[in-house]
Amino acid sequence: MTAREFKKVFPDEYGAWAMWIVPFLTGAQLAHTWNWKTLFWFLFLTVFYILKNPFVEWVIKNPVFSRNCPGKRGMIAISLAFPLAGLFGGAWFFAVAQRNAAFTAAGVAVILGTVYLFLDIHKLGRSLFGQWVGVFLLSLAAPLTAVALGGVFNRAAVAVWLANSLYFAHSIYTVRGWMNSRRRDGKTLSPLILFRPLFIYWGLTLLLAAVALLRHWISPSWWLLLVPTTLFIGTFVGYFYRRVSIRQIGFLEVAHTTLFAVLFLAVL
After folding, report:
1. How far apart are the first and last CA of the chain?
2. Which of 99-108, 180-189, 197-206 has the lowest mean pLDDT?
3. Maximum CA pair distance of the chain?
4. HSE of 225 in the Cβ direction (CA atoms, 13 Å)?
5. Residue 2: what pLDDT?
6. Closest Cα partner for 121 from 175, 69, 49, 63?
7. Percent of the chain beyond pLDDT 90?
8. Cβ–Cβ contacts within 10 Å for residue 45, how many?
9. Which residues are CB-neighbours of 152 under 8 A, at least 6 positions away?
10. How far is CA 187 from the centre of its chain?
């Protein structure tokens, strides 16, 4: 196995890591469980996430079994470790979790995972729909963790899942607006036009949060979660977007996500 091929399949996107680690933390906080089960579940999710790409690349997209290449045995071993880890973690999940909640959470995970895999195989994983499916799939770590640690798949679990998903989805439109600003015709457009989808999206998110508050689906303290992103969008569009690279956007998002996670854990 060459270093280039290994790097290709190893998930090194910091944003994607955050999209399941932060939901994991909020799911554990929702279940109010921080013990060896929490650590075990985190280690399982980490291994499962790391092994996902090799399995998809070397078994589904470009089967390693039918080609001659350096390190073939190692690639096969790593690929087969993915379903084995899944079976082991799944068995533990169903053994310790409440049955109905476990089947519900696992069913949603299978559906979203299948849809995303289909899109990825057909090179639509980077499409707008594909990115949304990916966000919902990774953020599903919140209710999965809550269920694995003794909770149920109820309204609170769905609210935590949705809050994580809506937060991370803002980065889709942030990056798309930044990319449009780098195009030749985008350099002359105003930020209101370049980031119009981001403004529309965040406006709808604020509206949904207002409805959820009026319907008593969330507590007033949850509105604190909207403050960092609102400020981030305002400062990014008003100042940063013409001055930063895509890598620097990643650093800004890491800092922003850390603040979001701290606030989320505080309000749960």
Report:
1. 45
2. 180-189
3. 61
4. 28
5. 60
6. 63
7. 74
8. 19
9. 98, 100, 101, 146
10. 31
